[in-house]
Each structure stands twice: as structure tokens, then as C-alpha cells.
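As agreed, record passed on underneath.
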Amino acid sequence: MEEGASLSAWEELDGGTASWVSSVLSLARSMKRVCELNFSTTRAFKLLVLTGLIFAFACAQAQLATPAFAQTVLGSFDTWDSDHNGRLTQVEVDSAVLNPQFHGAQAAALAALHTWIALEKDEAPVLDKAWFQSYRSVPLRIPKGTPTAEAKERRKEYAATPGSLQGSYARSLKRLSKLQRPDLYEEGTPTLSDIRQGALGDCYMLAPLGAVVHRDAKSVEAMIHQDPAGYTVTFGDGKVVHVAQLTDTELALGGSSLREGLWVRVIEKAYGSRKFDDDGPHISRDTMNGGSTGVAGRAFTGHPFRSIALIGDYKKDVPSDKMQEILEQLRQSLPSAIAENRLVLAGTPKREMPKSISPNHAYAILAFDTKSDVITLWNPHGNDSQPKGPEGAENGFTLKGGVFSMPLDLFAHTFGHVLIESKGQSISQF
């Protein structure tokens, strides 16, 4: 828009866009004044100021190129309002989330709406056009130095407020802008490094899934049959689940990494769908935050799991005889289970952990060296890290693709339990 644009042209813009256009014009005028500075002003200073103005100008243009959340919803409101009563409901939003026709900004707006409605603790307001026309974003401000746990809780509370919608929309739009929809398998067959847990709290399902991939990747590949309508997933316990193709909105909602193919997301969707006993519409992701590792393990194998209780507090003083009893139990159980290709899983309690160990988290046990008394585990986050100092509780452990090793005694002191796949009966089953 030129500086002499008519008033009617300005009136066609929403308030936020008009404000940014005004800022851009102001920046242009400032650049002109800098160029007209007298010759006593150094060239370097002029160049510095001009560079800063150009950068700000580019930022302003980028902001203009991104449609606002409320604008996007209003543009699609009549399409999403399937009963045409002038209000958007959770059922209507969820139906649109599962509709493959929505892409880009529409998919991002639906993802933001669905996330907020799912987290909303109080009764949601009436979502009519007037509500979106008056919508205002509220930024999250966490003071520097806020403890990590407190900051995390504030972010969680903020996500359940309508003020978070614009930020959630922008993040989803950014995610989609970088997305190149991958094939089911990027490497032709599943690998452990394909699995990288995202913001979704489904480590309890990914840990046994990773253990199955480590044991026999071909069996995981055989679980998924693709057809034009979507995917049929057959679990180890015999349950068969059909899921539709993943929509752009479902991908925008987040989950495990997509860098190595869609197969993990497909299994996440199928596992979440196991919990539905009616025809929906349902977003399977909503059922995936938190669950039982043993139940998930049984779904993948068809076998029960027996539990071995551990200490679960690495700072706790434990009588030596009790510690030795636990260690002997592990030394007797782990080698045979691993040799027989049975799944072995582990979990941490919700308390302070040694560095590089996640609290309230599920892991897969991949190996146990009886000579060195060292256990090898896999973290579904699939992360890499290098300790700054000797490995141990203080500095952490070397992780590559989530795989790391630690002494058995520290493992037993830190983790809360071990789950071992069993074809027979046991006292403690999942």
C-alpha cells in the first residue's frame, strides 16, 4: 500500500494489520531521513542504522504475511459450523480436524482451537462470530529465573486459556510450513531411531513399541497395512483397528517426529483409537497423554507382564540387604528374558532424578552385561547428550539416539520398577 492510500483502503484492514502497515510506512520514512543525514555523520553509523531499519521492515512484512488466528477462523466459520446455528462446538471442530480438505492456515487454526477446547477446564464460551471478532491474544510472560517446574506449570495453565490461541496457531502454522508429508517408512522398514517422542505424553506406549522394533522390526512393519482409505493396524493381542489417513490438522497437533516416516504417528493414532467404543468424531491423540506401560506392552505382544519393584529414589538410604535382594532378582531375571527375546521395560517415578534421566517416564531395556553389571536402556525421546564430566548421577550419561548405559545398582536405586514380558502367569500382571 502506498503512503497516500485512501481511507477506504485502510478500513478494509483489521486493526492489527493496519497497525503493522502504519509501522512499515513509518520505517520507510525513517530510512529516508537517515539517507538525508548531513555529511558529518559517519558512513558506518548510517550503514548500521539502515541495516537495523531494513531488518525491522522485513519483520513487519513477515508479520503481514501471516494471517491472524481470528481472521482465519472467521473466514472458515460458515464451513465449520455444520449445523449452521452460528456457533462452533467441540464436535464441529473435531469433525473439521478429521477432514482432509483443510490445509495450511485453516489446519493450524483448527489445531489451536481443538487444543484449547480439550484443555479448557471451565465451560467454554459461546464460540460465535462475535467472540472471534473481539478476540485478543494474551502473551505468556515468565520472569527470568523462574524454576523449571513452575515455568512448566505456567505454560500448561496458559495453554488452557483463550489468550494462548494466537501463539498456538502460529506454532502450528510454522510446523505445517516446514512439513513435507513423508512416506510410511523413510528407510523401507521401521528402526529404533525413527521413534522420537514429541510433546505428547505417550512414552508408556512408545517404550514397548521401541522394544518390539529392537527385537523384530519386520513384525512392526507387518502390523500396518495401507489402503486408499487409510491404514489397518493389527496389534499383537489380536485387536484390529482401522484409521483414516492423517490430516494436516492432525499432523499440526503434534506427536512423535515425522522425520523418518509416518508409521509411528499411524500407530499412535491406532492405539488411541482402541479406547473408543462409539463412532466419534474422536481425536485419538486426546486419549494418549498418560497410560500404563504394561497395558501397552500387552497390546503389542499379547502377553502379560510381571513387575519387579525397585527403589525409585537415588538419594534414599537403603539397607544393604534389601538392595542386594533387588539386585539379585534383576541379575537372575534380566539375562534369561533378554536371551529369550522377551520385552523388558522400566519406569521412573515422579521425583527428582539423576541428570539425563527423565522423571515419570517409560524406558525400554535393550541389554544387560552380566560381567560388568551394566544395563543398557533406550529413552523414547531419542535424544543425544554428552555429560560434562565423568558419567554418573551428577553429570548424567552419554546418550545417542536415546540409548545409554548405567550401572545396575544406580539403575535399581533410581528407577521405580521393571516390567518383563511373560508367557505364563505371575503374581503381578498387566
